[in-house]
Design a protein that fits this description.
1 helix; 70 residues; two-stranded parallel ribbon; alpha+beta
Length: 70
C-alpha cells in the first residue's frame, strides 16, 4: 500500500471473522444465524470501492455483532 498510494492505487486488507459459507466443503450442522454472511463481506468491499478518492482504509476487520456463546 505504501509503495503504490502515490500513484492513486488503494490496497485494503479485509479480514472477516466467522462467515457462514460452505468453504470447508461440508454443510454446518449447527445454528449459523449469528455468523456474518458472504453478503456482509461483499457489501463491505462495495463500500470500500465507493470511498472517496481522498480517503483510504488500509485494513478492515469484521466480526459478528453477537457471536455465539462458548
Amino acid at each position: 500500500m505504501l509503495e503504490v498510494r502515490h500513484q492513486g492505487v488503494k490496497v485494503t486488507t479485509v479480514a472477516p471473522g466467522s462467515v457462514d459459507t460452505a468453504f470447508a466443503g461440508s454443510p454446518r450442522s449447527t445454528d449459523t444465524s449469528w455468523m456474518l454472511t458472504a453478503e456482509d463481506v461483499a457489501q463491505t468491499v462495495v463500500d470500500l470501492l465507493r470511498m472517496r478518492d481522498g480517503a483510504h482504509s488500509s485494513r478492515v476487520e469484521m466480526r459478528p455483532a453477537r457471536p455465539q456463546a462458548r
